[in-house]
Design brief:
Length: 177
């Protein structure tokens, strides 16, 4: 991908968000540029994580910065071909948002800790033990690679509470077809 290519957010209910993203096999300059562009979209939209399908890219690729602050580059985490190898700890409820669901928030139950196997942008192996907010972000973003979305994890009550906002997204999507 050229370094200056503009990526746009893919919003619910685009069927693209429902695809299972295929494995990344090529670790080249193009992948590095894709990561740079995805980080830009994430920061610009005030996110803490972004999965490639959320910008219309068919790749098992996540970018994360739990601080959401572009100045704090030490917080940046790039996960290529991630898989969760174990989930541990108590299930906790925490409010989540999603760049594919603007202005929608819902309480989602997830285990507090997980271990993740992935590759970095050069293809080197990563093994991470995560807890707390970072563990939650990774679990949320990894859902995207399987076509699982915030709306699937919402309680019936949260779905009802967000019904108007969800319908608005559906209407906007249909208008764009
Ligand atoms: Zn999301």
């Amino acid at each position: 991908m050229p370094a200056d290519l503009e990526l746009n957010l893919t919003l619910y209910p685009s069927p693209f968000l429902r695809r299972v993203a295929p494995v990344v096999k090529t670790f080249d300059e193009g992948l590095k540029n894709t990561v740079t562009n995805m980080l830009e979209v994430m920061y610009k939209n005030g996110g803490v994580g972004l999965a490639a399908p959320q910008v219309g890219l068919d790749l098992r690729l996540l970018v994360i910065n739990e601080t959401g602050d572009r100045e704090k580059t030490e917080g940046e985490l790039v996960l290529v071909n991630p898989t969760i190898t174990s989930r541990k700890g108590e299930n906790t409820l925490h409010e989540e948002g999603c760049l594919s669901f603007p202005d929608i928030y819902a309480e989602v139950s997830r285990p507090d800790a997980c271990t993740v196997k992935a590759q970095d942008v050069t293809g080197a192996a990563l093994n991470l033990e995560l807890t707390g907010f970072l563990s939650r972000i990774v679990q949320h973003e990894l859902d995207h690679l399987e076509g699982i979305l915030l709306v699937d994890r919402m309680s019936a009550g949260d779905k009802l509470r967000n019904r108007a906002a969800l319908q608005e997204l559906v209407d906007t999507y249909k208008q764009g077809l």
